Amino acid sequence: MPLTLLTAHDQTEHHAKPLEGLGSDVKTIQRMCSDDDETLDLIDVAIANPHGVHRDIDNINITQPNGTSRQNALRSLRKNAPLIHKEVISGKLSAHAGMIKAGLRRRTVTIPVEPQG
Questions:
Q1: Domain map (residue ranges) of the chain
Q2: Closest CA to 59 of 11, 1, 117, 99
Q3: If exposure means fewest CB atoms within 10 Å of the residue's CB, which of 27, 43, 44, 67 is most exposed?
Q4: pTM of the model
């Protein structure tokens, strides 16, 4: 799906126009920035849906990631714990550790199925 700039609807414009210069899609740009939480967070803010605005392209919904993804953690922290969000963006905490610190995710442990030795 191409990265797009959605404009106000009028009678002459019936679809979104691709951003000039990038020639790429959102997922590719996010993969290129995968090791930079601050840039990923800025991309997420830029593509967020304003309240009440339906965004889709060719009937394919543009959705935000959910579940346990790093981007979802950044979004949750930005909304629910802005001070911890800043710690994650600055690199002082991982997104997972920030979610635990904010009380938005429980700490878990891994137990091996078979004992060693």
A1: 17-101
A2: 1
A3: 67
A4: 0.56
